[in-house]
Amino acid sequence: MVVLDALPLNVNGKLDRPALPVPDYAALVSSRGPRTPREEILTGLFAEVLGLERVGVDDDFFTLGGHSLTATRLAARVGALFGVDLGVRAVFEAPTVERLAQHLSVLLAGENDVAREPLRAVAERGERVPLSYAQQRLWFIDRLEPDSGLYNVPFAVRMMGELDRGALRQALADVVARHESLRTVFPEEGGVAWQRVLPAEQAQVPFFEQAVDAQKLTDELAGAAAQGFDLAHEVPVRAHLFAVSDGSCVLLLVAHHIAADGWSMGPLARDLSHAYAARVSGEAPAWGVELPVQYADYALWQRGLLGDDADAESLGGRQLAYWRQALADLPVELVLPVSRPRPAVPSHRGGRVVARWDAELHAGVVELARGSGVSVFMVVQAALAALLTRLGAGTDVPLGAPVAGRTDPALDDLVGFFVNTLVLRTDTSGNPTFRELLERVRETDLAAYAHQDLPFERLVDELNPERSLARHPLFQIALTLQNDTLDGLSLTGTDADVLPVELGVAKFDLAFNFRERHSLDQEPAGLVGLVEYSLDLFESDDAELLLHRLESLLRTVVTDPDRALLNLDIVTAAERSLVLERWNDSAAVVEGLTFPELFEGWVARAPESVAVVCGDVDLSYAELNARANRLARLLVGRGVGPESVVALV
Predict the structure, then answer these.
(1) CB neighbours of 371 closer than 8 A, spacing ≥ 6?
(2) 207, β-bridge pairs
(3) pLDDT at res. 22
(4) Running DSSP on this structure, what letter comes out for residue 110?
(5) Cα separations (Å) of 430 from 334, 394, 433, 631?
(6) Confidence of residue 485 (pLDDT cuts 50, 70, 90)
(7) Which is nearest to 226 in space by CA: 150, 169, 155?
(8) 399-412: pLDDT as tens digits
(9) What kind and span of H or E run contains 619?
């Protein structure tokens, strides 16, 4: 057994790295067989990242529940400890402790790039800390649409039991004091904004309390969550406490995306739970381990890490060169089966539909992913791209996909806006089989993950696509798969359940969001699919039909992944019944007449009724009959008779 704390962290002698807060990995290791010290460390890292007690050296990372996000975290942890730039591809290609240890040995023995500069707290930040690149875009959008709730991040929990309101207020203040991002305002001068971190005693979080009828709770939550922020003067977080008529209480925390992302809700909930437990006991929270960095440190580190884009050797320059090539000649806009034409200025009003797919389909997707060396996300991405191609979007399908952006272990427990957006371009040309399409998606995604540090905002600026307020740049459809378990809020003396909050907004034309559900023994228990759609373009029925078609396609490929794309079944059961049964119902009595005879009957009965419409031209049955007779006489005059073949254009 090797206890990690007894090892020098600079295990390869290449880089003097700061110590990381790590558990006793030796206690996490499976008891099967002897291991090398390197395997011992990797086994503990696997267990920590996956949230498992024990992992064996030959256990597959993805079979144990790993996915793209946790693979990125694992690669970052390994890189930080061993002083190498490992990359997420290595985890996909060497997904067991034994194989990854062998891969690591090759890296350490050769001349490879050392790990990136680690993230540390900055002693002297300067008078004005710049915004991160992601923050810059949201700040600019806020200037275009002030007081908009488009980029609010709501988190709501329903509680039953005795709630100490005073302790809750104190606990919220404790959390805001702990995370600087929650007490940062964004003043500007000359069109340039910067981060101003308020002292904890000056950062007063608005806390609203009100009674509400249970029947009106959903609307009240949506209304409160949609209220905008004055980013220059207000702290970017507020709290609402609703006393519901059914005896429960609902706490709604609303943060602006400039200060927090979806991943941040986990650390926020954990810290608020810890602080509340302490305050109920009349004590201040003891955090144990202080946060190693704050968001301002990250913003400064990010700029130094990427360097100057004009420098081809800098990290930013290298990644920009990759994206320029990867996104060359990208379609300006996907052709989608919309219900209404795209308006010049979007309203950002959105709707949502939800589908729940059974455990059998979920298990089939998981099995296909494992057998193909891809993640569940990649299977869903390939299926969505195939569906869009079949619906007329073409064979070059760009999708936007968020990545956590926490590429340094120091960011794991920090509240802030780190998420980045990748443009994942899927080539569906040549009528590939679905298994072949998965291979294409795998290569595209792994290359994109390896270049995920370049902020989407800088990518848009550099590529400078045709700009329009009417559509999102570079992609119009987003895809997300949530396979992390969101930490709920646990307030001493209450039972709490997370509540969904509908904002009624749409950032994209379509946003497909999926969440995996698992049983207690971590077996696939189903997929929950949610589509957020722009009300400017789609009806609710359109979004529901898309989900049904995607389900049909997935059920086909999990049983026959070698079927070609153009042969994939996208017809829903309802559509099949309509065509084969209702439209093809032969029980009705049919007159023994030919089509020309039936048409002539309508000419006699309703000569002035509209028969056909083409653009702005309407033809009645009488007018259509006259035109058809003229054409018939023309053809007869040119020698056309019975059984002749005439080409129609």
Answers:
(1) none
(2) 239
(3) 44
(4) S
(5) 19, 12, 9, 41
(6) low
(7) 150
(8) 999 998 888 889 98
(9) strand 617-620
> Is the torsion defined by CA of 398, 401, 406, 407 positive or negative?
negative
The DSSP symbol for 26 reads: G
- The predicted-structure confidence for 184-199, as pLDDT tens digits, reads as follows 999 999 889 999 999 9
Distances (CA, A) of 70 to 91, 152, 362, 415, 483: 10, 25, 19, 18, 9
- pLDDT score for 3: 31
Q: Per-residue pLDDT tens for 409-433? A: 899 899 999 999 999 999 999 999 9
341-365 average pLDDT score: 93
In the beta sheet, which residues pair with residue 396? Answer: 427
| Mean pLDDT estimate for the chain | 87
Considering only the C-alpha atoms of the chain, give the largest distance between any 2 of them, rounded to a whole number of Å.
Answer: 103
How far apart (Å, rounded) are the C-alpha atoms in residues 79 and 144? 40
CA distance 611 to 627: 12
Alpha-carbon distance of 534 to 512, in angstroms, equals 12
The secondary structure of 128-194, three-state, reads CEECCHHHHHHHHHHHHCCCCCCCEEEEEEEEEECCCHHHHHHHHHHHHHHCHHHHEECCEECCEEE
Which residues partner with 152 through β-bridges? Answer: 256
Region class of 187: left (phi > 0), else alpha (psi between -120 and 50), else beta: beta
Comparing C-alpha atoms, which of 398, 384, 396 is closest to residue 438?
A: 384
Question: For residues 156 and 251, what is the distance between their CA atoms, to the nearest angstrom?
Answer: 6
Percent of the chain with pLDDT over 90: 57
Q: Per this entry, what is the length of the chain?
A: 649
Give the other-Cβ count within 10 Å of 145's Cβ: 12
- Helix (H) and strand (E) counts for the chain? 18, 17
Cβ 334 vs Cβ 477: under 8 Å: yes
Token look-up 């390197």 returns: 38
Q: How confident is the model at residue 112 (pLDDT cuts 50, 70, 90)?
A: low
pTM of the model: 0.80
Copy the structure tokens of residue 28: 């996490």
For the chain, the first-to-last Cα distance in angstroms comes to 80
Q: Measure the CA–CA gap between 378 and 394, rounded to whole angstroms.
A: 19
Looking from the CA of 381 toward its CB, the CA atoms found within 13 Å total: 32
Q: Which strand ranges, in their side-by-side order, compose the sheet holding 510-518?
A: 350-357, 524-534, 510-518, 477-482, 396-403, 420-427
CA distance readout (Å), 158 to 167, 278, 523 = 17, 21, 28
Compute the distance between CA of residue 253 and CA of residue 448 in angstroms, rounded to an integer: 33
